[in-house]
Amino acid sequence: MREEQALRRIVIVGGGTAGWMSAAPLAQLLGLGDHAASCEIVLVESPEIGTVGVGEATLPTIRFYNRTLQLDNAEFIRKTQATFKLGIEFKDWGHLGNRFFHGFGDFGPAIVNRSSILHWLRLNVDGALGNHEDLSTATVMARRNRFVPPAGDQPSAANAYSYAFHFDAGLYAAYLRDYAIARGVKREEGTIVDVSLRPGDGFVTAVTLADGRRIEGDLFIDCSGFRGLLIDGVCQVGYHDWTHWLPCDSAQAVPCVRVEPLTPYTTSTARSAGWQWRIPLQHRTGNGHVYCSGYTSDEEARHVLMQNLDGAALGEPRQLRFKTGMRQKAWDRNVVAIGLSSGFLEPLESTSIQLIMDGVGRLIELLPDRRCDRHLADEYNRRMARQYESIRDFIVLHYKLTQRDDSEFWRYCAAMSIPDALEHQIETFRRSGRVAILDPDSFSEPSWVSLFLGLGCRPERHDPLLRQVDDQALLGHFERLRHAIAATVSDMPDHAAFIERHVCAE
Ligand code: FAD
């Protein structure tokens, strides 16, 4: 049997959200604070090259990440100016005036092994049952600006929902930096100007900083942002360009003052050549306009953003450019790209931080020794690609199902060809009322259904087994559920008051 060659040093290139979100769990896992630890972690960040500086909305799994690090929840919320997020409100996507919510959670408990919402759809043929969103506790809470965390182990049907956070990305990275450094991660400040490779296999052996310092390592995590210093600059793995499906390539971002009420959700409003986000934080509101430069100018995009702020801007908008897609390999040789260096999907469903968490989680699962076995890399790349593609399809769905034809951009989106897997997904739902789950690590059935229904796509036929349940019994069930949710939410505190009383006052 060949002897294992444990890693001696991991070098993380970049100190943005991805760099510090990678450093923190690795430091915890490798027990760096312990003198017996055999591996060290060095993180290099450049004082000259800034971070992307946006990225404020998350998905519920951020809570599991924070819990793994054993972060104190109240301290995390205070230090990052966080608010709670129950989902995303979409405005003007399906058509002008269209409004729907993608909430975190289900539409009530399953009935005879089938999702509640599928029963509801079968029964709601003529629209007599009202709005399905009344059966989503997260959505009802969001519409009324209420928040409390869901009850513990055995929540009632009306108390089953999930939540995530909005936070200041810069403050979160700083919080994790302190965490990682306290656990033994070494931070080097400097700009990498050269990379040394091992002859033969091309493994990276060291990076050299502008002042001549040389940092050697066995495994390099490339968190250098869009530039992909190692994964692109050195490994040149290639890029899957998805701009024909997701044509937005630019964004302008600007914070404005905090606006009341403090909404426990993100808002995404479709604009004539893209969409605008609104993310409420405790100390300010994050805003940005994501758009396609082929259909509008930067000046016009900036004007649209500034005209649609609901408070005074705190500065000038920041211009960002990107190309939607992913690296053909996130792991090549002894280089693993995490964060923007691995690819980019527009922030419509807040998935970038999720991809960072899953990237570092998978790396920990598949942690190599010094040889960086190719099969580990292949498995990592397979899982990352499946997740990226599944998220891509979910985002493309928002554009493809639009009925808007009021601008060139929306006419392009409605007519564009889409990935085969998404075509399959849409047709499966339209023809049979079923959701194909192509990647268990990405969006689940309630999320797909929220989008389908929100954008006006309804099934023509239904699962034949749904007929086993008596219609009258179902009607009674949905009526009781709707009332239980409304009553439960009525008793919940206002979102801002909850933060004030239970988090900031501690
Ligand atoms: P960066 O923040 O760019 O950090 C790169 C780091 O690499 C920096 O520390 C830099 O100093 C260092 N570096 C680069 N080159 C060198 C060098 N030569 N030498 C030394 N160091 C170097 N995500 C979400 O989950 N939710 C959102 O709501 C969201 N909104 C977004 C909105 C927009 C418009 C964009 C563009 C992105 C958004 N994201 C969002 C994505 C999110 O911002 C990123 O995933 C996250 O910030 C991670 O960035 P990063 O750390 O990979 O890169």
TrEMBL record:
Which Pfam families does the UniProt record give? Trp_halogenase
Coiled-coil portions = none
InterPro entries cross-referenced by the UniProt entry: FAD/NAD-bd_sf, Flavin-dep_Halogenase_NPB, Flavin_halogenase, Trp_halogen
User: Could you say which residues form the signal peptide?
Assistant: none
Q: Which protein are we looking at?
A: Tryptophan 7-halogenase
Per the UniProt record, the lineage of the source organism begins with:
Bacteria, Pseudomonadati, Pseudomonadota, Betaproteobacteria, Burkholderiales
